[in-house]
Structure formats: C-alpha cells, structure tokens
Amino acid sequence: MIYTRIYPAFFGAVALLWLAGPPTVQAQAPSGRVTFSGTVRDARTGEKLPGAAVYTAGGQVGTTTNAAGFYSLTLPAQDSVRLTAGYLGYGRVTVVLAGRQTTTHGFSLVTRNELGEVRVSGASDVPLERRVEMSTLQIPVAQLRKLPALLGEPDVLRAFQLMPGVQAGREGSGALYVRGGSPDQNLTLLDDVPIYYVSHVGGFLSVFDANAISDVRLLKGGFPARYGGRLSSVLDVRLKEGNKEKLSGNAGVGVLATHFSLEGPLKNGKTTFLVSARRGNLDLFSRVASRLSSGGNSVVGYSFYDASAKLSHQLTPRDQLFAAVYLGGDRLFVTQKPQTIAGPQGELRYQNASNLRYGNALASLRWNRTLTPQLFGNATLAATRFRYANEQTFELEDRSPAGKLSEDSRASFSSGVQDVLVKADFEYYPSPAHQIRFGATAVQHAFTPGSNFFTSRTPVAALDTTFGSQRVGAREVALYGEDEIRLTARLSANLGLRVVRYWVQGQGLGGVQPRVLATYLVGEHTAVKASYASMQQYLHLLSNNGAGLPTDLWVPATRRVAPQRAQQLALGVAHTLPEWGLEVSVEAFQKSMRELIEFREGATFYNSSQNWQDKVVTGGRGQVRGLEVLVQRKTGRFTGWVGYTLARNERQFDQLNQGRWYPYKYDRRHDASVVVIYQVRPHITLSATWTYGTGNALTLAQGNYQVIDQSYGLIAGAPSDRYLYPEAEVYGDKNSYRLRAYHRLDLGATFTKSVKHGERTWRVGAYNAYSRHNPYYIYYSSGENDSYFTKGQRRLYQLSLFPILPALSYERSF
C-alpha cells in the first residue's frame, strides 16, 4: 500500500514544481558560480542536435546536449568564458560570453558538407573513450541511407544487424536478436513511447521510415536507470521536429514502397510540422500475378503503410510543446471469385475469403520546460496499441427451389496489447562533475492474448460464439534516479537505481534494479569500461517460430507466469586513433536470464478455449557469453566498419530436452560483417556490405518407424506385404543440428544531383550479389517421383529464399 501513496504524491509534487518555475533566471546560480545553458541546433533546418558537445577552452570542462538538444554548464564566475559547441559532421562554433552572470545562449552549427569538407554527420563530437557509456551503437541517418538496401528501401533495423552483438535471426528478417535475447526483449521507443511490433512484409522491412527520423541509437548493455521494462536492448528512435527555416520535402518510389514527407514552419518560426507517409507497392504486382495464375478466379494482395505527423510549438522561451501521431499496418488478403457447382437439386454458389490485418497506433503529447538554467524537465502523456486480426469467411448460396443448404460463416482470431502511459523526466546539472536524472513512469496495460470468434447462419440454425483467453489488465509504475558523475580527471561513472511495482490479477510484484557503469582513462585515447545492469520484464511474447508474420502473442506476467529477469556484466576497452579517424572497441559480456517461457511441444495458437497459460512451460533459464569487436571509421571519404562477435547462447527448461541445456535457435558462434562506404565524388557514393554467420540451430528427426495398428488394412493395388501404418519420428537433443553457414554480399550506389528547387537521388544495387543459396528452412523428402510403395531413403532438402535481387529507387527532395 505504500506505493499507492508515494506515486500520487510524487506526481503532485511534479505538477507543483512544473507550475512554479523561477521568476528570473539570473537568481538561480550558487554564489561564486554562473550557469550557461541553451540549445544546439542545425543552422539550416533548426533541428536540435542531441549528443552535441559544449566545452570550455582546452576541452577540460564540458557537457553534452540531451535528447532535446539542451545543455547546461555551471562554472566559477570570471570575467569571460570561451565556449565551443561541436557535433561530428558539423563545423565548431566558439563564442566569448560574459562570465559573471548566468546566461542563455543557443548555438547554430553548419554541416561540414556546406563548408566544403567531407565527413559523416550525426554522431557525438565527444571521443569514444571519454563518453560515459558502453555497448551503445549509433548509425547516422545520412550514412544509413547510403547503405545497400533490400530492393532499394533504406532500413534502420537492417543497418543495426550489421553491428557486433546484433543478429537478424532468419534470412530476410528485420528482427533484432541482441546479445542472445529475443525480439520481445527489445524496448523500442518512438519519441520516448514504446512500440510493440516493428516489422512489415513478414519481417523484411521495419516500420521506421528513414525520411522521418532525425536520430536513432541502440543500447546493448550498460543501461542507464531511465530505461526499463525489457531485458536485452533499447532502440531509441527520434522523429524530426520539422524544418524551422523553410518548407521542404521529399518524395520517392521504389520496388517495395512509395514515400512522401513534408516539413516546415507554420507561424513566425515558433511552430513547425512534419508529415510523412509510406505505402507498400507489393500488392500492385501480386494482384496482377494472382489473377493471371488463377485464370481470374482469385486475387491475392499484400500491402502496408506508415504515416507519421509531428507538431512542435515554442510556447515561451522556456517551454516547448510536441504532439506526435504514428499509424502503421499490414494487410494480407485472399479473395476468391464466386464459384458455381451443380448440386442434387440445383446450382450451388460459394465464395471464400481471408483477411489478415495487424499494425500499430501511437499518439503522444510532450511538454519540455527549462525550469531553471540547471534543471530541465519533460512530461509525456501517450497511448500505444498493437492489434492483430485474422478473419476467414465462407458464403454458400443454394439456388435450388428448396434452398436448404445456404450458409454464411465467419471465423476470426484476434489478439493485441494497449498501453496508456504518463511519465515525467528531469535532468539537473549542478556542476560539470554531475549530471543527475530522475523521474517516474506509470503505465496501464490491457492485454488480449488470443480471442476466437465464430458465427454461422443457415436457414434452419444459427451459431454465434466467442472463446479463448480473456482480456487481462495490469499496471506498472517505476521510479528512477541516476547520476553521471566525474569522480576524478580519469574516472567517470553512471550510478543509477530503478524501482518498479507491477500489479496484475490483484497481486503486486516488483523489484529494485541497480545500474552501474564506469569509465577509466588509462591514456590520452584509451579507456577501460565496465558495467552491470539488473533488468526485469513484465510481459512475454509467445512466438510461433514461423516465417515472421505476427501470430506472436503478447501476454502479461501473471500469478502463474512470473516476470522475466536478467543480469548483465560487461567489460571493455575503447580506443581512438585520431590521425586515422578510427574508433576501436572490444567488449566481453555475460548475461544470465531467468523465468523465460516457451510453448509446450506441439502447442498451437488456435487451440479452442484453452488458456495460453496452459500451453507454455515456465521457469526457463538462459546463459549468454560473448566477445565483440568493432573497428569504425566515421570521417573522410572512406567510411564504414568491421565487426565480429564470438558468442554462446543456451537455454534450459525442466520440461524440455529432459531438463538439459540446449543451444537457443539463434545461437550463433561466429558472426562477422564488413561495411564499406566510399564517396567517389560529392554526388556519387559507392557502398558494400558482407555478412557471415554460423548456421542456426534446429531440431531434426533422427529416424522413423511404423506404429502397428490393426485398424489399418491392406491397400488396394499394393503388394501383399505392404500395409499402411502411421509413422512416428524419433528425435534427439533439442537444437542439436546446424544449418549451413550464412553469408551474403550486398552492393549499392547512390547518385545525387542538384536540380531546380532541390535534389534528385537514384539508388541502385544488388542484394545477395553472388547469389548465395542460404538456407531458409530444410525438410525431409523421399523424392517427387517416389510413391508410397517404392520410396527409398528419405533425404534432407533445403529451401532458399532470396537469390540475387536488383535494387532500384528514385527520390526527389525540395
């Protein structure tokens, strides 16, 4: 009961603090010290730059901007202060300010491309070894758009799959398996709001349109206390705020999709907007192909869409409001043309159709406020939803005089999850040695694990029924605090604590999650880093282990199914070579997981009225150990990276594999990638990526035998000694077989040209350039021409998904 008293009081205090704002900014600095604060922006668009560095002369004292581009630096009072702002890919700006009074100053940075220099933009200007972070990956959006892409469509998740510690799972899949975790263990945030399902086209494309994104980063470990709710990673995606200086836009068409975006100012530069939309093109081909192949009797279509809108308004110099909406969905449908057959009393006319829909919806309202020059606050109110529905229909019309056989039947299966959340986050900068963050989050969950609906109407009877798992509500509240502290000139740390309380079915659960990260400089360009993170996850994903369609069910931790837990330790070395523009990191990690769940052997989604909790085994454990190496170059005409991962990923359930440990299905001993981007000329860029990975683990039958059953008899026309008996298969250890190794080469080229009122871009390339036949799945067969009576030894066959695929897309910006 203590929590129910603490949290309302906390949010009440937040509201009072929010409304109380300081009467003047000059009165806030401690005696003998002054504070400099403001924002760092892109001079051309007005877009705020998160992670930009702001420091004094010599770079000995400094800070970085937060996600809203805000910085605060408190220094001893002096006659004048020389401040420099920098962001990799932008020219540095230095100003001299009066040093005896608190001052607000904003920086506007110009990209180095506009200054005639060639550098990759979008990453922090702080050297790798001096950042108080580890296990963090960032790919600038500008660089991401130059990588080879499946059918010419740039994709955020595919780019991160090329980094060490991140795997793709199956061929073509956009899912992220981070340090041995599963996709449901990734916290995906779109402007600080969770989003549940992140893929289109059965997993081949992510829901994030690169044209609407300003910044994206992936945390694999060393999690700060402000993040929680998942075990394996945090994917933090930020939408653009909109061009503050002028109206601009972008439109393009490719094989996979057509997209359009528009952004600009609305009112006196205080209000900006962004709208972005993308639609899949595959149904334009599938409709025609299915009609031709079926003689016009059926139509098969697949389409998807994304739509984002964001409005930003500068209410006062200290207050900014944001409103954002995202809608996205997929649809796969099969419609059969009405067929007519002859019945005993006349003609029968029937028609079948199926319709699969799934997608996300998200809406958020945020308020940023500079409470004092040293205190920054952010309040968020949001709702997010994922919904899945699969509907089958059958219509039968009896055209005979009696008309007794008419029928109209509909069957559907649906599932989903819906959240409403309120959160408040604060950042306090008392001195250059401390950056303190604290806040709270409250989430109301509503789970629909799986509901079946069936209705049938005939002239003589009617049936209407609903069965399956019932809707479950849950509530989750979290408090956190963390301090990024500079202990000495060489030693820095991030010390944090997250406290969670979760209620479901009248039961309260919770825990305390400590987080520690330390960075020690052992040389001018070398640092040793270590981290520990305790994580808890109060929801599970039941996966069908299939080809990627989201027949996966989100379910809550309950009285019977405990929340997932994980602990991760990491130790690494970070080193930069400034003369070469190289960053080198080597990290070793160990992650242990508890309370994992899996489907029981033979369990399915569509199982009448059986509750999902009866279909799973619980209490599973996981152990992941690995070594990751990343060598990355972000500056110059020649950029890219080389990554390598050596890892071991195992699971154990008392009720599976006789209780023995077994390799996880995406256990991959060796995983390597090479990414090369070369800017031949300012308007021509060539790129190539090569990936290699140990084959996935799976379970295969090791033999089979006939089960003698006297109810089966001789088969007509068969040899006298041949009986048709059912066959049973014999299995060995779980996941004891390995697929062939996976490797692939992708090539790409980007051609840009300045044209009237903007720029046009062509992207060409090839996916799987040497047409490697990588395994998608394997199966046993005795051969297509063998009958039951003449079949011989069964053989193992492989199905490959993608041969070499050309890529082509066109884009026009203005």
From TrEMBL:
TM spans (from-to): none
Membrane topology annotation: Multi-pass membrane protein
Localization per record: Cell outer membrane
Xref: InterPro entries: Beta-barrel_TonB, Beta-barrel_TonB_sf, CarboxyPept-like_regulatory, Plug_dom, Plug_dom_sf, TonB-dep_rcpt-like
Pfam families in the record: CarbopepD_reg_2, Plug, TonB_dep_Rec_b-barrel
Domain (TonB-dependent receptor-like beta-barrel): residue spans on this chain: 328-768
Domain of life: Bacteria
Span of the signal peptide: 1-27
TonB-dependent receptor plug domain ranges (all copies): 153-230
Principal subcellular localization: membrane
SUPFAM superfamilies for this protein: Carboxypeptidase regulatory domain-like, Porins
Keywords: Cell outer membrane, Membrane, Plasmid, Receptor, Signal, TonB box, Transmembrane, Transmembrane beta strand, Transport
Similarity comment: family membership: Belongs to the TonB-dependent receptor family.
Annotated protein name in UniProt: TonB-dependent receptor
Organism this protein belongs to: Hymenobacter canadensis
